[in-house]
Write a structure and sequence with these properties.
about 240 residues, Rossmann fold, 8 strands, binds NADP nicotinamide-adenine-dinucleotide phosphate
Length: about 240
Protein backbone atom coordinates (compact mmCIF):
# COMPACT_ATOMS: atom_id res chain seq x y z
CA UNK A 1 0.00 0.00 0.00
CA UNK A 2 1.17 3.53 -0.74
CA UNK A 3 2.05 4.99 2.68
CA UNK A 4 0.68 8.43 1.72
CA UNK A 5 -2.88 7.11 1.25
CA UNK A 6 -3.70 7.11 4.96
CA UNK A 7 -4.07 10.46 6.71
CA UNK A 8 -1.43 11.20 9.34
CA UNK A 9 -1.81 12.97 12.69
CA UNK A 10 0.52 14.06 15.46
CA UNK A 11 -0.99 14.22 18.97
CA UNK A 12 0.82 15.74 21.98
CA UNK A 13 0.26 14.81 25.61
CA UNK A 14 -1.00 11.39 24.53
CA UNK A 15 0.11 9.21 27.45
CA UNK A 16 -3.30 9.39 29.06
CA UNK A 17 -6.58 11.28 29.30
CA UNK A 18 -7.97 13.19 26.34
CA UNK A 19 -4.80 12.87 24.24
CA UNK A 20 -4.69 9.10 24.61
CA UNK A 21 -8.41 8.82 23.80
CA UNK A 22 -8.04 11.05 20.72
CA UNK A 23 -5.25 8.75 19.52
CA UNK A 24 -7.55 5.73 19.91
CA UNK A 25 -10.39 7.50 18.15
CA UNK A 26 -8.23 8.56 15.19
CA UNK A 27 -6.88 5.00 14.85
CA UNK A 28 -10.47 3.74 14.82
CA UNK A 29 -11.13 6.12 11.91
CA UNK A 30 -8.23 4.61 9.98
CA UNK A 31 -5.63 7.29 10.65
CA UNK A 32 -1.90 6.84 11.13
CA UNK A 33 -0.97 8.48 14.43
CA UNK A 34 2.32 9.71 15.84
CA UNK A 35 1.58 10.02 19.56
CA UNK A 36 3.67 12.13 21.91
CA UNK A 37 5.04 10.23 24.92
CA UNK A 38 6.07 12.27 27.93
CA UNK A 39 5.34 10.27 31.09
CA UNK A 40 7.91 7.61 32.03
CA UNK A 41 5.49 5.62 34.17
CA UNK A 42 2.64 5.35 31.63
CA UNK A 43 2.71 2.49 29.10
CA UNK A 44 -0.79 2.82 27.63
CA UNK A 45 0.51 4.00 24.25
CA UNK A 46 3.03 1.17 23.93
CA UNK A 47 0.34 -1.36 24.80
CA UNK A 48 -1.99 0.17 22.21
CA UNK A 49 0.77 0.08 19.59
CA UNK A 50 1.05 -3.71 20.00
CA UNK A 51 -2.29 -4.14 18.23
CA UNK A 52 -2.23 -0.99 16.07
CA UNK A 53 0.53 -1.00 13.43
CA UNK A 54 -0.34 2.57 12.39
CA UNK A 55 0.40 3.95 15.88
CA UNK A 56 3.89 5.34 16.41
CA UNK A 57 4.64 6.49 19.98
CA UNK A 58 7.35 9.19 19.84
CA UNK A 59 9.17 10.94 22.68
CA UNK A 60 7.84 14.48 22.77
CA UNK A 61 8.20 17.01 25.55
CA UNK A 62 6.01 19.88 24.40
CA UNK A 63 8.53 22.34 25.87
CA UNK A 64 11.35 20.99 23.72
CA UNK A 65 12.06 22.35 20.25
CA UNK A 66 14.71 19.63 19.86
CA UNK A 67 12.14 16.89 20.51
CA UNK A 68 9.84 18.49 17.95
CA UNK A 69 12.57 18.56 15.29
CA UNK A 70 13.36 14.89 15.94
CA UNK A 71 9.68 13.99 15.61
CA UNK A 72 9.45 16.05 12.40
CA UNK A 73 12.39 14.07 10.96
CA UNK A 74 10.77 10.76 11.97
CA UNK A 75 7.47 11.70 10.28
CA UNK A 76 9.29 13.05 7.24
CA UNK A 77 11.26 9.81 6.81
CA UNK A 78 8.20 7.62 7.33
CA UNK A 79 5.44 9.56 5.57
CA UNK A 80 6.79 12.79 4.07
CA UNK A 81 3.81 14.89 5.13
CA UNK A 82 1.52 15.64 8.07
CA UNK A 83 -2.24 16.20 7.78
CA UNK A 84 -3.29 17.07 11.33
CA UNK A 85 -1.77 18.40 14.55
CA UNK A 86 -3.58 17.83 17.85
CA UNK A 87 -1.87 20.17 20.30
CA UNK A 88 -3.18 18.87 23.60
CA UNK A 89 -0.35 18.60 26.17
CA UNK A 90 -0.84 20.76 29.24
CA UNK A 91 0.04 21.06 32.88
CA UNK A 92 -2.98 21.62 35.08
CA UNK A 93 -3.65 22.17 38.72
CA UNK A 94 -2.93 24.89 41.20
CA UNK A 95 -1.35 24.90 44.64
CA UNK A 96 -2.30 28.43 45.70
CA UNK A 97 1.07 29.76 44.51
CA UNK A 98 -0.94 31.37 41.72
CA UNK A 99 -3.65 33.03 43.79
CA UNK A 100 -3.63 36.74 44.54
CA UNK A 101 -3.92 37.46 48.26
CA UNK A 102 -3.07 33.91 49.36
CA UNK A 103 -0.69 33.12 52.22
CA UNK A 104 1.89 31.74 49.74
CA UNK A 105 3.80 34.10 47.42
CA UNK A 106 3.30 33.91 43.65
CA UNK A 107 5.68 31.35 42.11
CA UNK A 108 7.22 32.77 38.93
CA UNK A 109 9.41 29.72 38.07
CA UNK A 110 6.39 27.45 37.80
CA UNK A 111 4.56 30.15 35.86
CA UNK A 112 7.25 30.05 33.16
CA UNK A 113 6.97 26.26 32.83
CA UNK A 114 3.17 26.47 32.54
CA UNK A 115 3.43 29.09 29.79
CA UNK A 116 6.02 27.08 27.87
CA UNK A 117 3.85 23.96 27.98
CA UNK A 118 0.32 25.30 27.74
CA UNK A 119 0.75 28.41 25.57
CA UNK A 120 3.96 28.57 23.58
CA UNK A 121 4.27 24.86 22.69
CA UNK A 122 1.39 25.23 20.21
CA UNK A 123 2.98 27.84 17.91
CA UNK A 124 6.38 26.16 18.32
CA UNK A 125 4.91 22.85 17.22
CA UNK A 126 3.07 24.33 14.24
CA UNK A 127 6.14 26.28 13.14
CA UNK A 128 8.37 23.20 13.41
CA UNK A 129 5.95 20.96 11.50
CA UNK A 130 5.07 23.57 8.86
CA UNK A 131 7.16 22.06 6.02
CA UNK A 132 5.31 18.74 6.48
CA UNK A 133 1.90 20.37 6.96
CA UNK A 134 2.34 22.36 3.74
CA UNK A 135 2.77 19.10 1.85
CA UNK A 136 -0.75 18.04 2.93
CA UNK A 137 -4.00 19.07 1.25
CA UNK A 138 -5.79 18.60 4.62
CA UNK A 139 -3.85 21.10 6.78
CA UNK A 140 -5.96 20.89 9.95
CA UNK A 141 -4.83 22.23 13.33
CA UNK A 142 -6.57 21.30 16.59
CA UNK A 143 -5.85 22.91 19.95
CA UNK A 144 -7.23 21.84 23.33
CA UNK A 145 -8.29 25.00 25.14
CA UNK A 146 -10.71 25.47 28.04
CA UNK A 147 -13.69 27.53 29.09
CA UNK A 148 -11.43 29.12 31.71
CA UNK A 149 -9.50 30.74 28.82
CA UNK A 150 -12.39 33.13 28.25
CA UNK A 151 -11.87 36.64 29.59
CA UNK A 152 -15.57 37.26 29.13
CA UNK A 153 -16.75 34.14 30.99
CA UNK A 154 -14.17 34.07 33.81
CA UNK A 155 -15.79 34.22 37.24
CA UNK A 156 -13.13 32.47 39.38
CA UNK A 157 -10.52 34.02 41.63
CA UNK A 158 -8.07 31.11 42.06
CA UNK A 159 -5.93 29.08 39.66
CA UNK A 160 -4.74 32.14 37.76
CA UNK A 161 -1.64 30.47 36.31
CA UNK A 162 -3.42 27.74 34.34
CA UNK A 163 -6.23 30.07 33.27
CA UNK A 164 -3.82 32.70 31.94
CA UNK A 165 -1.91 30.11 29.91
CA UNK A 166 -5.06 28.98 28.11
CA UNK A 167 -6.00 32.59 27.30
CA UNK A 168 -2.51 33.06 25.87
CA UNK A 169 -2.98 29.84 23.89
CA UNK A 170 -6.14 31.26 22.33
CA UNK A 171 -4.30 34.41 21.29
CA UNK A 172 -1.46 32.34 19.83
CA UNK A 173 -3.98 30.26 17.89
CA UNK A 174 -5.62 33.44 16.61
CA UNK A 175 -2.26 34.64 15.30
CA UNK A 176 -1.50 31.26 13.70
CA UNK A 177 -4.98 31.48 12.14
CA UNK A 178 -4.23 34.96 10.78
CA UNK A 179 -1.01 33.67 9.25
CA UNK A 180 -2.02 30.26 7.90
CA UNK A 181 -5.75 30.49 7.12
CA UNK A 182 -4.92 32.20 3.77
CA UNK A 183 -2.91 29.05 2.88
CA UNK A 184 -5.97 26.86 3.37
CA UNK A 185 -5.27 25.72 6.93
CA UNK A 186 -8.36 24.97 9.02
CA UNK A 187 -8.67 25.27 12.78
CA UNK A 188 -10.38 23.60 15.72
CA UNK A 189 -10.26 25.24 19.16
CA UNK A 190 -11.83 22.82 21.62
CA UNK A 191 -13.16 22.95 25.19
CA UNK A 192 -13.27 19.32 26.35
CA UNK A 193 -15.42 19.73 29.46
CA UNK A 194 -14.54 18.99 33.06
CA UNK A 195 -13.02 15.56 32.49
CA UNK A 196 -12.24 12.72 34.86
CA UNK A 197 -8.44 12.28 35.07
CA UNK A 198 -7.02 8.94 33.90
CA UNK A 199 -4.54 6.86 35.93
CA UNK A 200 -1.83 4.55 34.58
CA UNK A 201 -4.24 1.59 34.70
CA UNK A 202 -6.84 3.58 32.69
CA UNK A 203 -9.10 3.97 35.73
CA UNK A 204 -10.84 7.34 35.97
CA UNK A 205 -10.97 9.74 38.92
CA UNK A 206 -14.24 10.34 40.70
CA UNK A 207 -14.01 14.11 40.19
CA UNK A 208 -15.13 15.44 36.84
CA UNK A 209 -18.28 14.96 34.81
CA UNK A 210 -17.01 13.96 31.35
CA UNK A 211 -15.31 10.68 30.43
CA UNK A 212 -12.26 11.60 28.31
CA UNK A 213 -13.26 8.90 25.80
CA UNK A 214 -16.60 10.68 25.22
CA UNK A 215 -14.91 14.05 24.88
CA UNK A 216 -12.37 12.53 22.45
CA UNK A 217 -15.18 11.08 20.33
CA UNK A 218 -16.69 14.57 20.01
CA UNK A 219 -13.26 16.14 19.42
CA UNK A 220 -12.55 13.78 16.52
CA UNK A 221 -16.07 14.31 15.16
CA UNK A 222 -15.31 18.05 15.08
CA UNK A 223 -11.90 17.41 13.53
CA UNK A 224 -13.27 15.25 10.72
CA UNK A 225 -16.32 17.38 9.98
CA UNK A 226 -15.80 20.16 7.44
CA UNK A 227 -17.38 23.46 8.46
CA UNK A 228 -19.04 25.95 6.18
CA UNK A 229 -17.50 28.79 8.18
CA UNK A 230 -13.80 27.89 8.24
CA UNK A 231 -12.97 31.61 8.02
CA UNK A 232 -14.20 32.05 11.62
CA UNK A 233 -12.01 30.89 14.53
CA UNK A 234 -14.46 29.52 17.11
CA UNK A 235 -14.11 27.88 20.52
CA UNK A 236 -16.48 24.89 20.58
CA UNK A 237 -17.18 22.69 23.57
CA UNK A 238 -17.66 18.94 24.02
CA UNK A 239 -21.39 19.36 23.39
CA UNK A 240 -20.86 21.22 20.13
CA UNK A 241 -21.76 24.60 21.62
CA UNK A 242 -19.84 27.71 20.55
CA UNK A 243 -18.34 29.56 23.52
CA UNK A 244 -17.20 33.12 23.97
CA UNK A 245 -13.42 33.47 24.41
N1 LIG B 1 -9.33 17.72 32.64
C1 LIG B 1 -10.17 18.72 32.47
O1 LIG B 1 -11.18 18.82 33.14
C2 LIG B 1 -9.89 19.77 31.41
C3 LIG B 1 -10.77 20.83 31.26
C4 LIG B 1 -10.53 21.79 30.27
C5 LIG B 1 -9.42 21.64 29.44
N2 LIG B 1 -8.57 20.58 29.63
C6 LIG B 1 -7.43 20.44 28.73
O2 LIG B 1 -7.55 19.19 28.08
C7 LIG B 1 -6.25 18.68 27.78
C8 LIG B 1 -6.11 17.27 28.29
O3 LIG B 1 -6.51 17.21 29.63
P1 LIG B 1 -6.52 15.81 30.43
O4 LIG B 1 -7.57 15.89 31.46
O5 LIG B 1 -6.49 14.71 29.47
O6 LIG B 1 -5.13 16.00 31.18
P2 LIG B 1 -4.02 14.94 31.53
O7 LIG B 1 -4.61 13.64 31.84
O8 LIG B 1 -3.12 15.60 32.54
O9 LIG B 1 -3.28 14.84 30.12
C9 LIG B 1 -2.39 15.82 29.66
C10 LIG B 1 -1.09 15.15 29.38
O10 LIG B 1 -0.10 16.09 28.95
C11 LIG B 1 1.07 15.78 29.66
N3 LIG B 1 2.07 16.83 29.69
C12 LIG B 1 2.35 17.74 30.65
N4 LIG B 1 3.43 18.46 30.31
C13 LIG B 1 3.83 17.98 29.10
C14 LIG B 1 4.89 18.30 28.24
N5 LIG B 1 5.78 19.28 28.53
N6 LIG B 1 5.03 17.62 27.09
C15 LIG B 1 4.16 16.64 26.77
N7 LIG B 1 3.15 16.26 27.56
C16 LIG B 1 2.98 16.94 28.71
C17 LIG B 1 0.56 15.46 31.03
O11 LIG B 1 1.56 14.88 31.84
P3 LIG B 1 1.52 15.15 33.44
O12 LIG B 1 0.45 14.29 33.97
O13 LIG B 1 2.89 14.79 33.91
O14 LIG B 1 1.26 16.60 33.65
C18 LIG B 1 -0.56 14.51 30.67
O15 LIG B 1 -0.09 13.23 30.40
C19 LIG B 1 -5.26 19.67 28.37
O16 LIG B 1 -4.86 20.60 27.39
C20 LIG B 1 -6.09 20.40 29.42
O17 LIG B 1 -5.59 21.69 29.69
C21 LIG B 1 -8.78 19.65 30.58
Amino acid sequence: MNTTEIRTALVTGADRGLGYCIVKELLAHGWRVFAGKYLEDYSLLDELAETNPELYPVKLDAKSGDDMKKVRDIIDAKVGKLDLIVSNAAIMGGDHTDDISSTTPLDTDTLAMFFQTNSYAAPLLVDTMLPLLRKSDYRRLFFTSSEISSVRLMRRTGGMRYAMTKTALNLGVRMIFNTLRPEGFTFRLYQPGWMKRMSADKSLAVHGIVDPADSAREAVRQILEDRIDEDRLVLVDYMGRELSY
